[in-house]
Queue: 2 jobs
Job 1
Amino acid sequence: MRIKLEKRPEPSTLMAFATPIASVLLTMAIGVIVFDALGIKGEKAVIDIFLTPLLSSYKWQDVAVKAAPLIIIALGLSIGNRAQVWNIGAEGQYIIGALAAAGVGIAAGGAGGGIIITLMILAGILGGTFWAVFPAFLKTRLNVNEILTSLMLTYVALQVLGYLVGGPWKDPNGRNFPATAPLHADQTLPILFPSTTVHLGVAIAIVLPFVFWLIMSRSVFGFQIRVVGSAPDAARHGGFDAKQTIWLSLLIGGGMAGLAGALEFAGSLKAINLGFPSGYGFTAIIVSFLGRLNPIGCLIAGIVLAVTYVGGQVAQTTVHIPNSTAGIFQAMMLFFILASDILIRYRVRFIGSPKVSALPAAGE
Amino acid sequence: MGTDTIARLELKSITKRFPGVLANDQVSFSVLPGEIHALLGENGAGKSTLVKMIYGIMQPDGGEIRWNGERIVVPNPKAARKLGIGMVFQHFSLFEAMTVLENIALGMDAKIPARELEARIKEVMSQYGLKLEPHRIVSTLSVGERQRIEIVRALLLNPKLLIMDEPTSVLTPQEVEQLFIVLRKLASEGCSILYISHKLHEIKALCHTATILRGGKLVDTCNPSVETSRSMAEKMIGGNLKTIEKAEGRAIGREKLIVNRLNMPARSHFGVSLKDITFTVREGEIFGIAGVAGNGQNALLLALSGETLTDDPGAITVDGAQLGKLTAKQRRLAGVSSVPEERNGHAAVPEFTLADNSVLTARDRLGMVKVGLIDQKAARTYAGEVISTFAVKALGPGSTAGSLSGGNLQKYIMGREIMQNPAVLVVSQPTWGVDAGAAAAIHQALVDLAAAGSAIVVISQDLDELLSLCDTLAVINEGRLSPAMKVADADIEEIGLLMGGVHGDPAATANLHPELAHAHQA
Ligand SMILES: Nc1ncnc2c1ncn2[C@@H]1O[C@H](COP(=O)(O)OP(=O)(O)OP(=O)(O)O)[C@@H](O)[C@H]1O
Ligand SMILES: [Mg+2]
């Protein structure tokens, strides 16, 4: 018997749903096997990483708070990924967004309240958008690969962060660590449920996917992104400007990453130090693909990835594996989802060989 | 090899069903060794589906396939190739960013060193007179050239049965002649050929037997050499064929589209640049542009549609308005519509529904956009109108463009543009892959559009089509356009020379068929 891939007449919708789920399950299975082989209790580790955060209600708020930036960034990235514009620099845009929000907070001095918070959020969006202007400009004017420029700008953003928190914005009352002063209480995002950490950003992360879904499925802009993604020549024929698509998808990606940075800063961390960038911008790439570049998919995938973050911390204490193990699981998921993508367009056939080989060999 | 009495290929009661359509219904026939066997039928009759099953791309739902008398299952194309079945597709499967050589190498089941493969390709090409540069990138090739890759690819396998799905749709008359020499030679060497085409005069010239499908059923088998093109067409549609009605003495009005010294640099190293293209099309006039594939037809269509822009705003004017620097979207709004030669991925998005494909080019002219949102209902309604007006065989506006048969998608695309009542319509290969009945309907629609006052440019490699359809004709070669001539007093000989002179290959033009001039009236 042989295994053979056969092209499907039409892409399979069933598989579009099944493969992300299968990827998560496969990741869990491989995790059990590998950890057992390493002499760690595999089942326990996998259960702690994937299930404990869901089963114990006091972990839910952690999951929600971690999922919010992942979802918001992934929504923006999905637009670019659909249009085959590859923004790898969301992490940098996230940092600049947070810094812009911090700048507004500092400039406002002691003032706070709704208006200042709104301004901080807007500044975050603008900051992230601004950081995406460079790759967009270089791509459309000089045809420089946006993967390289956006990624390299992440490192520039890190330098900017280091400079600001270690210099002009360093907390004068702090212990001389490179960090900004904590935000005033009335400059932080409102908390949705008393005595939890669930802030306004979580609500935004739940609402935005539906807004994006409407835009992608109903608007001309969404149509444009879909056409560019499936058939660039047809997009040109239909009168959609390729450069405009590149600009818009990079700027939206940057704007969303900046928004996530501002919300994370004003909602959860409240101060920026050298540890502020925690890889959300990169993990969101996984969220985007695991969510099938679909806004609602991103919402679900963001929660799954947030679970692994929280679960990684749980496993750290229970089975004593490093926190970065979660990163391995996340990478495995991306690997499986990309590999299983082929099942949407192709189907696997198991072929009994006897009949074929019994034939008179013709040709050669 | 078996004896001559055993059929090379025999089909028994082959049945294939798609959601909502019975594409093949109990089809049985056989092909003998060395026989050139035509498969005829209207668009959507099930021809491509049938040969896809022989080549192992799809599996029949019922019936059996016999090869040299033995029952076989063809699980996939590789198994088919192993048996000695080669196929040239209606739609090509080529990687745009790779060279001709790399594409052929990818299609080979056995690994052959590049140098050896190149030598073999050159040998096959010279043996059969096919011109192709192995190191060119596919994206720079015209449709006709791309097809030659597929033909070479199939011939490299020394096939015992060669399936050709509309191989001549985009070939020039000279290329068709040369292809026929190849096919006759192959057949005389014992290779069977299963040949699908809508060009009935070709079938008459080439094929020994013809099997006719209608609505998935086998309706007739005949000997093409004793039939006329018209009698075969009528067997296909099961009724009478309409002839184009051109109102005599149509009024040709004011100058509408004026192209004045249009220049366009080549888009790539191998592309063709446009040089001083100048012509005028009047209201109600159908202007034909003839030429051998790859002489700038694509570049010209893109320049007129606005997919590439010129620096000179006055190079293109419509009713006096300068369009040279307007984008594709602005030109559509100004009344210029276009249909490029490639349906899949250029004129239409295969994965999208027909309704969405109508949004692609009709959204602005027909007001399908309201405050940035798409009016889905308007799109569905319009798609439905196109489907019924142009008799497109599709389940409805929600069918994906990719699920339509080649000719039906072409009908849809032509209908989508024509029903927008453009002031100027530029079409390339309007009836590529379209059956005789539908081709007549498309021609009629173009004539009617012209009669209503539009200016129409038809770019085609099918000289018969241009001669029967157009009022005026010019020939493009190496990016230059010849002076226009009235079709009524056009000299075939001269057109042939203009077309072929480019490649310095007078031999190719010398045998231009006189029958070509009236094949469409047949
Ligand atoms: N993958 C598919 N899914 C659904 N329907 C299909 C699919 N492929 C073909 N069909 C339908 O089957 C019928 C036969 O199609 P087929 O492509 O075999 O026609 P054809 O005779 O080759 O036509 P043409 O001359 O236009 O190429 C059509 O009604 C077509 O819409
Ligand atoms: Mg077909």
Note: DSSP finds 17 helices and 23 strands in chain B.
Job 2
Amino acid sequence: MTESQCTAVIKKLKPDESCMKCDSMKIEPVLHDKYTALVELVDAYVCQLTNKKRTSDLLRFLSTKYPLSEHPHVKRVKSTKSTDNTTTVQVVICEHSADLTCDVIKSTLTEFTDCIGCIGVVKIPSTAPLTRKQYEVATQYWPVNFYENKIITQLLTDSYFNYDDKEIIQQHMKEAIDMALIAKQKQMMPVGAVIVDPVTNRVIAKCYDKRSGTHPLQHATMVCVDLVAKSQGAGMWNYTTDDKFYNCEMKEDEINNDSKSGPYLCTGYHLYITQEPCVMCAMALVHSRIQRVYYGSKHIEGALGSKYKIHVQDGLNHHYQVFNGVLSEICDQLWTDYG
Amino acid sequence: MTVPQDKSSIDSWMLKSFEFAEEALTNNEVPVGCILVWKDKILATGRNEVNETKNATRHAEIVAIDKVLEYCEEHSEDKTKVFSEITLYVTVEPCIMCAAALRSVGVSKVVYGCKNERFGGCGSVLNIHTDTLHQLGPSFQCVDDVMADEAVQLLKTFYKGENTNAPDGKRKIKDNNC
Ligand SMILES: [Zn+2]
Ligand SMILES: [Zn+2]
């Protein structure tokens, strides 16, 4: 299908073209849950410091006697200025625990009895904040260190992609939609996939879902990964020209295994797919060492945000980035009057 | 567990799977082998072919599933029925991908050797075999720890040498934790 045909179909699917405008185009990161988690708190013993000259002595003592090794992000000292301009200084002694009573702690602090007030219990954040939002919540309880990850901030504030990036992403997703439309004509599931080398924007492979044909494992992702292998002169499945799949053909010097820069599986590649991959496909992408996935529609059993987050699964040795919502209205509409 | 064989026949089927794991090792592939048993006969066999095909999904189970599909095509058998009557014997716990593949074709019984701590989909990393996934396919039962020590030994032999197919700079991929 040519570019203009695709655009025509998209127009038919979505007469209101507003979703095709890059500036209104949604591209949402699918992050590990830890970036959106609420700030967890634990109880800690604190004391008021009445003689500030002895701050450093006390801190030195606490760092050996009660190291905050479980909570290295927590600052020991909290200074609060009251309305009459006097400053109160509180110091974290240690995490609260049932078998460590106030009296026990007091008995270990005898050399500081002249400079500390009574001991109390406060809530402190138990893990380091990963986002500015978590940081702001955490510091309402107690001062903590925050090392801002610029990429995470950009992702959360929708400033990771510029206009040109979004246009390119949209173009590749349109190619995936083209493949889904071919599938639809063939009474196959309307899911299309494209694998791209983002450095050159070269399309490495494109295909659609063939599971409803003769092979139940030929999901779009599985086929696309195999077409990448084909582009490197190998592969596991056979296809016919009637399938209208595509894979580029790497030159001999490009696929030479001795070369340190030669292609290896899907390393460095981006997958564009109209529907969220299932858990088999998401794990196939881990094995294939894909760098990034963009998908359109969500799926109830999808493994890149809906049912699982395989791309950031703890315990797996390769993680990849995932973005969803790309031309999702059109990807959703591919399913109307299917089957 | 309702895998229909007694312990000694389970072991003898597993022993057969080891032949294919060893064949993988000889071919410089991760040594995992499997057989699919149907009506008390071996219907299909498989071993890792990842390096050979340059396709990281070419695990033993996928290879064997492909062969069953070919068999059903050739002999006009109902593939859904055949898969539902099959028992898989595999030297290592199926990974997350293969566990999902086994569900999507409808294999209902799996016997495996050692745990797959890195990728296991039948208890080690995730429980794909029993999680609620109606659209993917029926859940399946597992019998584990059948000749596990032998399977671990084979894997150790492989990992002592390195996967020579990965270019130097790409053996250790830095995790992108978002
Ligand atoms: Zn899939
Ligand atoms: Zn596997």
Note: Residues 14-19 of chain A have pLDDT under 50 and may be disordered.
